[in-house]
Amino acid sequence: MMRTKYSHASLSLARICRICSGVIPESLPSGRCSIGDGKGTPSRVLSARSAFLMCPRHCPQQATIADMKRFMEPASIAIVGATRQTGSSSFNIVERLISHGYAGSIYPINPNTKEILGVATYPRVGDIPVAPDMAIIPVWERSDVPKLVSECVDAGVKAIIVVTQGFADGNAEGKALQEEILRIARDGGARLLGPNSLGVANAFIGLTTSFLPHKMDKVPVGIICQSGVFFLNLRSFTALGKAIDIGNGGDIHFVEALRYYECDPDTRVILLHIEGLPQGRQFMEVALRTSLQKPIVALKVARHSEAVRAVESHTGSLSGKDEIVRVALKQCGVLLVNDIGEMEDLAKAFLRLPPMRGRRVGIISVSGGAGVMILDACQDHGLRSAELTSETGRHLQELYPNWMKVANPVDMWPLSACSGLSVSATALSGLKALLEDPGVDGVVLALATPFFEEALTVADAVPGLMRAYSKPICWWTFTGSNEEKDAAIEKRGALVFQSAGRAAMVLGRLADYEKFCRENSPQRQ
Q: DSSP for 84-133?
């Protein structure tokens, strides 16, 4: 039978899966398939490709969602080796849980004291009257961990987080110790997150297993990372709604974590930090299915040889051939970014902006030079300048001086000078004209913060304009970043970017995602 191919950079989906240590069927049925409610009633019609990858029988570990809920939504937690020290540098997980308002039961395990911060302690996990949902092992000495994991398993704990380092991320002895603790957990019917992991965070229930102080907020963003740096927040907003640090990924890895977010009603956007991706086929199945419901943004690191070697000492992961992993991610609808700043921009965009249903961009700028820069940035990201309709041209020509022809980008400085309107009135008139134009899919506004009061007036109107026309507006404050002023604009509902390239990147990725969903889910067509 002929192998079904889905080309991207001359690589078929089948080949990618094979390279990623997995396979898909030689062929998929043609036409469309119905997925119903299990009672013979079709609820929606999908392409054969989408139906195959969305079918539960191709996801043999669906039960891991329940396993993941023990990590992400525990009613009780044991901290095995809890410290009595307190303060910001104490690395006290009990203190972190209390400070974030975790309402579940906390069981500190420390044989040398009777209480920590007013919470009664126990000498051993087995002394707790009822088996806790989850246990955290933050001890420093790695050789102590197998014994502690065994005690947790014997006490009936089914979810264990190992914070301790020096396992597969260390030397040969560490790798052997990692295999030992995984065997102990597996034989006892427990799942293990880590080792070398900060664990999990869930702002919706005040849960954090991190020993580092950090902020959380009930934002609908779920993070899966291989580094605790993501527990320390992004630059301009707290993205830590929920987080899973898989660390070395000995047991729980991207597939299990992604399945949890796929079904989680609190999560609308998923962020991935990827060093290595060993579960190729399973990941692709889950990622494609999830991408059709929620955008997934990925920062794939270890692109070069020196970084690959660093990954092996950081988490013990095999990073795989970077080109193959990137193509695989794109095939699944995962949106790739180059750095944390781009990840932050896209997360905010998916939370606050309407869809970008094409690649035609309208540009309005208080500076003609800034408009030209935006044109270049748009072309860099596969966008094009929108051709304005004659009706839009007539509307704008009423504001233009006689010597100036209507064009995209719209230069609002001459408009304001000729019409006598304020900068804010000119900007809003131009924005409305561009948004009403059927040939415009999204808009970039370049308005500098030196016009701060005028900018605030525009910012107040931007959310309503985006709702009315269901088109995204990206704002570039091109005279340089002023964090206080940018924050004031964003507080009103606009989305500010630090460069024309970042604004264009966001519109391009929004367009990529909408195209992916439209082509893979007939409901979007």
A: S--STTS--HHHHHHHTT--SEEEEE-TT-SEETTEEPBSSGGGSSS--S
What is the number of other CB atoms lying within 10 angstroms of the CB of residue 447?
A: 29
CA distance 6 to 15: 10
- From 422, 445, 291, select the one nearest 367 (Cα to Cα): 445
User: In the structure encoding, which two tokens stand for residue 415, read together?
Assistant: 């408009």
pLDDT attached to residue 214: 85
Residue with tokens 């400070």: 99
DSSP string, 476-512: E-TT---HHHHHHHHHTT--EESSHHHHHHHHHHHHH
For residue 523, what is the DSSP state?
A: G
Structure tokens at 516: 């992916």
Place of tokens 């889910």: 521
Peptide bond into 409 cis (omega under 30): yes
Reported as a single tens digit per residue, the pLDDT across 454-499 is 999 999 999 999 999 999 999 999 876 688 899 999 999 999 998 9
- Judge whether 512 and 335 are in contact, CB under 8 Å: yes
Number of H helices, E strands in the chain: 18, 22
Compute the average pLDDT of residues 344-369: 96
**pLDDT of 220 over the 60 cut:** yes
* CA 493 vs CA 7, 357, 423: distances in Å: 39, 21, 19
> Please, what's the largest Cα pairwise distance for the chain?
86
CB 3 within 8 A of CB 27: yes
Angle at 347 between CA 346 and CA 348, to 5 degrees: 90
Confidence of residue 205 (pLDDT cuts 50, 70, 90): very high
